[in-house]
From TrEMBL:
<feature type="signal peptide">
    <location>
        <begin position="1"/>
        <end position="20"/>
    </location>
</feature>
<dbReference type="InterPro" id="IPR026444">
    <property type="entry name" value="Secre_tail"/>
</dbReference>
<keyword id="KW-0732">Signal</keyword>
<protein>
    <submittedName>
        <fullName>Por secretion system C-terminal sorting domain-containing protein</fullName>
    </submittedName>
</protein>
């Protein structure tokens, strides 16, 4: 029992560290070179494929990617595929895909002008339609006479129509795990939940599909079903602008980053703690022997607390345990000289 607090605090610290968000792909096109690599890092496409580069092509600009098709027929006019065919690592059980884009012009309307795919074993050589057996989910953008909309291909639900050049953010929440995935569309929005084996599709703050069944057709479960991503501009004549793509596992950033001790190592008589929203009465200093050490907590300025041990603690590793005003707990490692 002597080390109960110390052991519990270390367990909480480990669980918080384990919940850190994993980013699989993020590109805001702040650079225009080095964005394609068959063995990509988290900022690179594995492949960008042009089947008729004189008629359908892409260009990286400072701050965005441009995709253009100039002929309606996909066979002679070509297609554009921007993809991550190299599997995401570590293998994700959940994904949140956020794509900020606009349709800059529509010269020839078409259904399913741009496809978005999430699945596995995508082939960068074979440009035919990927089968349902490879898919977790898919959606598309339609080119319309008066703008564009986004369609979920499983439920056939469509978003409202957006005008040309209107920037929107598509948010796709995909859950291949055995437990619900809780998420927020933006930092101020209410909490939403994607159930196991389903996905949610949003445009801005408006849902297009909720709890839509994944695995189209009769495809079997696969633990790697979220390992590949593709955008495929196949139909219509017009131009897309892609401003940003972010793909992560949807886990919240750990609270452990919210407050910090500086300096660390700290002195025996005073420990300076900085962080917004810390409940001063909740702060506990746990010694190397697992005991909670008595201390006095003093407000030392905006978002700053000064912790004064009532007796000098031993030198070595200690644990600070605290609670934020939003109810979240945090654990910090602290070295005392």
């Amino acid at each position: 029992m002597l080390k109960r607090y110390f052991t519990s605090a270390l367990a909480l610290l480990a669980s918080l560290a384990g919940s850190a968000q994993t980013t699989f792909f993020h590109q805001d096109f702040s650079q225009t070179t080095g964005l394609i690599n068959p063995q990509p890092d988290t900022s690179q496409f594995s492949h960008v494929i042009l089947t008729a580069p004189a008629l359908s092509y892409h260009k990286f600009h400072k701050g965005y990617m441009e995709l253009t098709r100039t002929r309606l027929d996909s066979l002679t006019g070509g297609i554009i595929r921007a993809m991550r065919a190299t599997p995401f690592s570590p293998n994700p059980e959940t994904l949140i895909v956020r794509i900020t884009l606009s349709v800059e012009g529509v010269q020839a309307p078409a259904l399913n002008a741009m496809y978005f795919y999430i699945g596995e074993d995508f082939n960068p050589v074979n440009n035919s339609f990927p089968g349902n057996g490879l898919m977790f989910a898919k959606c598309a953008i339609n080119f319309l006479e008066d703008g564009f909309n986004i369609k979920d291909l499983e439920t056939r639900q469509v978003s409202k129509t957006y005008a040309e050049k209107k920037q929107v953010t598509l948010t796709w929440v995909l859950n291949n795990s055995a437990v619900p995935l809780e998420y927020h569309i933006n930092p101020t929005s209410p909490e939403e939940t994607a159930q196991p084996g389903t996905y949610d599709l949003w445009v801005g703050n408006e849902p297009v599909a909720r709890n839509a069944n994944a695995y189209p057709g009769t495809s079997a479960y696969s633990k790697t079903k979220l390992s590949n991503f593709e955008m495929r501009f196949r139909n219509g004549v017009g131009k897309f602008r892609i401003d940003e793509i972010r793909i992560d596992d949807g886990k919240p950033q750990p609270v452990v980053e919210n407050a910090f001790v500086a300096p660390n190592p700290a002195r025996k008589d005073r420990i300076a703690l900085s962080g917004k929203g810390v409940n001063a009465a909740s702060v506990r200093l746990i010694g190397v022997n697992g005991k909670v050490l008595p201390l006095k907590t003093v407000i030392d300025g905006p978002d700053k607390l000064l912790l004064k041990p009532l007796s000098p603690p031993a030198s070595g590793m200690h644990i600070l345990q605290l609670q934020h005003q939003n109810g979240k707990y945090q654990v910090l490692k602290l070295m005392i000289e």
